[in-house]
Amino acid sequence: MITQGMRTEVTGFERLKEDYLDCPDFKETYSLLTSGEDQVINDFLIEDGYLFKSQKLCIPNTSLREFLVWELHDGGLAGHFGQAKTVAALENRFYWPTLKRDVGKLLRRCHTCQLAKQRKQNTGLYTPLPVPNCPWQDVSMDFVLEFPKTLRKHDSVCVAVDRFSKMAHFLPCAKTFDASRVAKLYFDEIVRLHGLPKTIVSDRDVKFTSYFWKTLWFKMCTKLQFSTAFHPQPMVRLKSLT
């Protein structure tokens, strides 16, 4: 039986109910289920007008398929998943017959992923970060993902480290958090204890490069610094804590 959680998942997808009838992948099954007596056909069933296969929402052959691939490939804190993880994330909630093939085709167009594959790690010297002269003025921040979900739906940890004292805060979050939620988490949990930092060092996570995130720090008179793309050596100390 489809759970209430699954019904919540499809909120905002009303157009799907019309698209099923025009989709070669699903129109026959959808028509049979809506007009016949059978409630289930080959693991397909209809719930509130939506077509499911084994409790996974069926996505018709529309631009929504491509949108979902990109959302789960580079959205939230997840960064750029590889093909296997992107497919797994999609198959956990959605179904269409060519899902794996479509993911592979789209990810070959991902400029960031192709650059990451082509560039070799720079083995030469790098410039170390300046040594801070007081606590909580210079902060390093990173995310550790893929923990089991808690009751509050947290599956990741935001790690904030004072580069002067090496004191660290570990803040529960979710890999689906967007820039505004990450910013709110930091200000609620760190700023109330230590005040605003002068600099925050992070690798180039999608959350930190978003316009909202940079604008937010600018308004708070805080400078956001980035590690060099594909060469995040300054994050080594931070990752050793996690």
TrEMBL record:
UniProt GO MF annotations: nucleic acid binding
Highest taxon above the source species: Eukaryota
Domain called Integrase catalytic: residue spans: 131-242
Biological process (GO), any one: DNA integration
The name this protein goes by in its record: Integrase catalytic domain-containing protein
Family matches, as InterPro entries: Integrase_cat-core, Integrase_H2C2, RNaseH-like_sf, RNaseH_sf
Pfam families membership: Integrase_H2C2
